[in-house]
């Protein structure tokens, strides 16, 4: 299984990034291949000028096409998700998330921003034809404490439990996802099938 994780924060130190990293590590421990992209790693010119032919953008598109699922993690600004993330998602083809499971994650200053996932991020994922967009996770800033030095960030117990529950659901959804039949395999199955009336 392949999961593409996408971080929407322009900052190298972000709470949404902490949750994205935790999620990726949890999936890797269960044998899932995880490839991570951060919006801040894309050339600003590629995003601002919608350069679909940029090698970095094409690499992102190709991996999304191959992926079984996506995790999209973003900070919430002005009651919506990060604009740079929207710009990156706009560079995906129209049906890029078809047959894929998506787990949205968002962090914000207070629970007043909780509905940004449902009313801002999920409609964009739906427009990209995501097969299944899970409930998602919202964490307010008080639930993620940065670690000092090499100390890992700490999550509030309630957030940790919700994150693990969402990841279990995401992993199960990936496992039950229908697999496309390889070209030629369907023909072989039809030829070798026993038909009766």
Any overview of this molecule?
By secondary structure, this protein is an alpha/beta fold. It has one domain: Flavodoxin domain (Rossmann fold, 3-Layer(aba) Sandwich), CATH 3.40.50.360. The chain contains seven helices and nine strands, in the order E-H-E-H-H-E-E-H-E-H-E-E-E-E-H-H. The strands form two sheets. Strands 1, 2, 3, 4, 5, 6 and 7 form a seven-stranded mixed β-sheet that branches. It has a two-stranded antiparallel sheet with strand order 8-9. Helix 1 crosses helix 6. It is globular. The N and C termini lie far apart (38 Å). The model has no long low-confidence stretch (mean pLDDT 89).
Short description:
The protein is of the alpha/beta class and 197 residues long. It has helices at residues 15-28, 44-48, 55-66, 83-90, 116-127, 157-176, 185-192, and strands at residues 2-7, 33-38, 69-77, 80-81, 101-108, 132-133, 137-140, 144-145, 154-155. Belongs to the SsuE family.
């Amino acid at each position: 299984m392949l999961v593409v994780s996408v971080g929407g924060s322009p900052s190298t130190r972000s709470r949404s990034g902490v949750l994205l990293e935790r999620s990726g590590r949890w999936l890797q421990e269960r044998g899932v291949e995880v490839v991570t992209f951060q919006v801040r790693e894309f050339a600003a010119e590629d995003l601002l000028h919608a350069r679909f032919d940029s090698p970095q953008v094409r690499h992102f598109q190709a991996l999304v096409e191959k992926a079984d699922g996506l995790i999209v993690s973003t900070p919430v600004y002005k009651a919506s998700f990060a604009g740079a993330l929207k710009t990156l998602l706009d560079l995906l083809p129209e049906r890029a998330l078809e047959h894929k499971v998506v787990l949205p994650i968002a962090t914000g200053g207070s629970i007043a921003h909780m509905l940004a996932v449902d009313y801002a991020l999920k409609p964009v994922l739906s427009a990209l034809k995501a097969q299944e967009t899970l409930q998602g996770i919202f964490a307010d800033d008080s639930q993620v404490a940065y670690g000092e030095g090499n100390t890992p960030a700490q999550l509030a117990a309630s957030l940790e439990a919700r994150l693990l529950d969402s990841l279990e659901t995401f992993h199960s959804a990936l496992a039950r996802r229908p697999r496309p039949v390889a070209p030629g395999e369907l023909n072989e199955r039809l030829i070798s099938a026993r038909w009766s009336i």
